[in-house]
Each structure stands twice: as structure tokens, then as C-alpha cells.
Amino acid sequence: MKKYTFTEKKDTRSGFGAGMHELGQKNPDVVALCADLVGSLKLEAFIKENPDRFIQCGISEANMIGVSAGLTIGGKIPFASTFANFATGRVYDQIRQSVAYSNKNVKICASHAGLTLGEDGATHQILEDLGMMKMLPGMTVINPCDYNQTKAATIAIADYDGPVYLRFGRPVIPIFTPADQKFEIGKAWMVNEGADVTIIATGHMVWEAIQAGEQLEAEGIDAEIINIHTIKPFDEEAVLKSVTKTGCVVTAEEHNRIGGLGDSVAQALVKSQLAPQEYVAVNDSFGESGTPAQLMEKYGLTAKHIVEAAKRAIARKS
Amino acid sequence: MSNRKQKQMEIEQLEKIASQVRRDIVRMVHGCQSGHPGGSLGCTELFVALYFERLKLKEQDGKPVFDMNGKDEDIFFLSNGHISPVWYSTLARRGYFPVSELATFRKLDSRLQGHPTTHEHLEGIRIASGSLGQGLSVALGAATAKKLNNDKGHIFVLMGDGEQQEGQVWEAAGFAPHHQIDNLVAIIDLNGQQIDGPTVKVMNNRDLGAKYEAFGWEVISIEEGNDMAAVLKGLYEAQSRLGHGRPILILLHTGMGFGVDFMMGSHKWHGVAPNDEQLAAALGQLEESLGDY
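Predict the joint structure of the above. Result:
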């Protein structure tokens, strides 16, 4: 296997910051908004070069979503950014009415998603955001896997006309996708072809899936690994094609097992290609304080857990 | 003709339009047996004054031209979307869409949804509203975009007084002066009523003018919000104060249900439709000036 290696580690939010910096230089309609978390969102470079196109909203996320919706009416492309919990759960109704239902070209950029925010604990560790955003009609939901892909996604969504939820995180993780990648919204990314089990992962769980693939290979199991960076629209075709070949599937996500990637895969399978599926996800619980590594282990989100799930899925094949 | 005489004629003409809009409102709400006549009737002078006199709108051959961006024109937003009947009637009477379409209000497959939306592509509507408290924020975004675009148009937004109880309104109230949004006029319909009763009893807003002033707004008051001349004067005054670093707030004192005696001043007509007899009684009090739809 060893198809993907890495030379350095970086946080995905820095990919967002780098993407915004580049957008600031090439797209004069892009406006950045933030709710008192400029440093956390890595927006300094954008703000330094485009002070007129940065709007500090203070600690008022509901207003930030509304201001963003209004900016689109004047043809601007607002990137509204804050922590994932405050970018979704706190302002769900504002996003629903002023952005999604009104079909406004707002990019909701959510950092510090999931358990790996770490020590701040459950109040800040949202694990329901993919589900909430996916349920909104017309909302595109993107969850890139590393620094390079987050940067590419940030730049790509500026050219896409419509509301987008872009989710990224705080932990420093390996960069394994190319810097010059083409980011195609809605298109699954084949990481590694295999025959025995399909592992479908999103976000930084893709790296855990790659490591799991290496462990499985050492045991003589050939895993196909797919990176789903776009949760919605969902690339059903890629998923079904793979599962038809391998006969079973594991989904891996840093999200509640209810309503996330796993459920999207299950919905696709139940329509046409029934196959055993195992979930690697947080089992309908809140998180807690701890280091990211400790939390990944306790809540069952490591490569080891993916390996175990893959073996269970294979054993269930008829 | 003297200027004063001409002005008087203009006011009389606007009052006639307002009477027709009121007829439309009660007929629309009666037609589907649902909707919000009280607040709509109370804000009729404001809508007619804005769309037929004060707003700078794009036109071609005497007809308004609608585009979502509203570049180089004034833009109006309605935050308390439940008073959609008065907005729909005004937009139709102004020429944005056929007056006959008013008959579809709140009915299946209509562009005239119970609360306004962009989803059905109705000319004149730029954002959905209905869930309260969001309109001022949207207006601030649109005002900011106009500044970024060097567009000299102004933004107007109407909110309800009950709506002032939403927290988001105060997030927006703080944002506007901080960012020196001085191309915006926000208006609060002070009719003193909300669904569960008089606002002072349900959740007293106390002195809204003082609150907005404390946030850094310039506040003016229109005491006679159902007097066309007073509304025109107040809007003119508000517009003349734009461009000096501060957002402008108008406290518009209106009577809920104004123009239909048995609906006036009562929260009971917030969201209730008249029956056949009540419709006839209401129409009997309102002059038909432009023809019913």
C-alpha cells in the first residue's frame, strides 16, 4: 500500500487561512466575516491585505449570518467564520431562513469541529453539525481531509454559486494530498483501490483510514479507501460502485453516528445495493475534556477501531 | 399651481392608493381565511409612501425593473414578514407583478407565500422573513455591500415592535453604529400589540428610542404613522440625515388595524381573517380607487 505518505503536519484551519489569503488576492468580491476569533480562524493575512473586506462582527453569530446574507444581495461572496458549534447549532434558524431558504451565496466556514478541539470539552465539540447542515435543502456540505484539501476547497467554493458549509478542525495532522489538487465539489476521491472491504472516510479520519488500510494489508486484507470530502451532494455512484466490488463497507467520521456520513452511505445502500456496514463514529454521546489523541481513543475513532470494524464487516458478508 | 397645492394633490393621490391597498389586504386575508390583517393595515401609509414616493427604484417605461442585487437603487427589507399582505399589495399596485396574482395569496402553488420568500422568485422580494429578528442584520449586510460597491442607494428595513424582544435585533443594533452604517434607515412599527396582547403586558420594550440612542443611533419619531403627510415628512427627514456616520431609526407610531373600525387598536386582529359579513363591513369603510383584483 503506502500509496500516501506525508512530509509535514499542519492544521486544516491553516489551510482555510491560506485559502482565504489567496482568495483575497484573486477575487475582489470575497468578504471575510468573523465573530471574535480571527486568530483561531487564521484570517490575519487576509485582513492585513484587505482591511476593507473584513467585517469584525464581535460575539454575535446570529447577526453575522444575517449580515452575510445581506452582503450577497449586493453581489458579495461572504465567508462567515467561527467555531463549528457557533456556526451551526447556535444559528440554525438564521441559516435556515436567511441563507438556505433564501438561497444566498453565503459560505459558512466552521473551525474546531468535533472532538479533536480537545480540552475545551463538550460545549465546544459539536458532533451534529454535518447532520444539521445536510438536512437543509440546497446546502452544500464539505469536510476536507487535510491542509492542502482545505485550502483547495476554500478556493473552490468561492466559484460555486450557492450556500456552502465548510468544516475543518484544530488538530495538527499529516498533509497527504497534493498541493496542486483540483477540488471537485461532490466528487468522491479514490485514495486506494482494493477488493475486500470499502472504507469510506471524511475529514481527518481519512488519514486514520489510510493507516488502517496499511494494518489490514499486513494481515492480508485488501481495503479500498475513499475520501468523501463532500457530504452533500453525495457521490452515491462512487460509493455503490465500490461496495458492489468489495461487498461490505466501513464508514469513518468524527461526528455523531446519527445523521452524518455513515447515514448517507446507508441511505445509498438501502436503495440499491444492500451490504454489511459498520460505523466508526461517536456513539450518540457528547464529548468531554482531554487531549485530541485521548479523545480519539476513548470515543473509538482511531485506525485501530477502523481495522476492527473492517473485520466485522467482512465477517458479515454472506 | 402653487407648490403647496400640488403637494396636497400628491398626498390625496397617495391616500387613494392606500385605501385600495387596504381593500386588497382584507380581501386577500378573507380569500384564504388566514393571514395577518392588523399589522398590515397599520403600516399601509408607510408602504405606499415608500414605494410610490420616497424609494429610488429602477424603472423602464414607467414599470419597475427588478433584479436581486438592487444596484444603484434603494432597497426595502421587511423583517416582520407576517405583514406580507401590505407588501404584496403595494408591490403589485406599483407594478412589480400582476395585481390579479394577489388572489393566490397563501394558496397552493402561489408565489405569494404566507411569509415572503425568494424561493418562489416573486419580483420585489430579496430575502425570506417570518422567523423574527433577522431583517435588520440582513439590511446591514446589504448596506455594507452598497458601501463596498460605492453604490449611493439607501437601505430601508421595517421591523415590528414585538420583534424587538429577539436577541439578534440587539446584536445588529450594536453592529450598525460601530461600523458607521449611515446609508440605512430602520423603522420600528410601534403599534403596541403582539399576539398574546399589548406589548407592555407581554414583554415591555420600555423606551426603544433611548435604547437605540444609547447604541449610537440617531432616532426620529413619526407620531402620526397613519397620516400620509406625516409619514412622508418623517421619511424625508430621515433620508436627509443619512451620510453622517450614524444609522437612522424611525419610531413609527401606528394603529393596528387602522382604517377598519372594528379591527383598530386590538391585538385580536393580529392573525385572524374576517368572515363574509366582516369583509363587507370593512370594504364599506374603504374607497375603491384603482379597481379590485
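The longest strand of chain B covers residues 184-190.
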